[in-house]
Amino acid sequence: MADVTLSDLKAFAAVARHRSFQRAADSLGVSRSSLSHALRGLEQRLGVRLLHRTTRSVAPTESGEHLLQRLTPLLHELDTVLDTISHGPDEIVGTLRINASTGAARWLLQHVTPAFLQRHRRVALELVSEGRLVDIVAEGFDAGVRLAEAVPKDMVSIPFGGTLRFVAVAAPAYVAAHGRPATPEALHDHHCIRQRLPSGKRYRWEFAKGRREMAVDVPGALLLDNSDLMVDAAIQGLGIAFVPEPFARPALDEGRLVLLLEDWSPADPGLCLYYASWRHVPPPLRAFIALLREVTEAQARLAS
What we know:
Helices cover 41% and strands 21% of the residues. By secondary structure, the protein is of the alpha/beta class.
């Protein structure tokens, strides 16, 4: 077997994740030249090229990508085991990495994060907010947070935050000038603020009423990729936006926006925290899940 060290593997994982020797070197606290030398030595010992290098970029080869996917959870598990041994089984220490949409990260920051950091002062919590749905295992996350419908089927999921609905909203001045659409089909006669998904596709607005369901590819000259910006645009009277209700709720309560097609906007299952069912659940994640359930139960009692 090739004489490969743990530091070699950590160096490769850092470069492959950051797609940059300089950023990886900064994260590891080493020089760029020593990191590059270590990676070339690793490739020579393994007898395979792990990285594509150009003057402007670096990316894993097919072999490198395969190694990264297998290596990331192993390194994370090793760090967890070493932390447990160093500090004792009853003290929760380490790093907890969670990938979430912007709205989900905002909810966690408001309702869970303050108490979690207060209770577990030796845990570093990293919330990475992005629109795309990532492979949390391959990219080194302990858990992810997404809408229930987007959670991969092979994951353990924990619902929280109650149900959620997407709503069509517009400024009162827009409604006064253009009227209210009576049905989703009537949106074709309106100015709509369309949304670009992280995949690059345009989002088709989804409505349901009783047994009727439809997805409408609405017209509109303005295309955005952020729910906060869509709300801002609607407030300015630029058209009708279709967003998760929590994003629009402050403006609705203040009268700066009004609800449209409310009877076509039922509540659906909301957010879920999810993690790989085949992996050991590290203590920081177990503690986070326990607090998340505690908060969810308390909110349910207040709502009943």
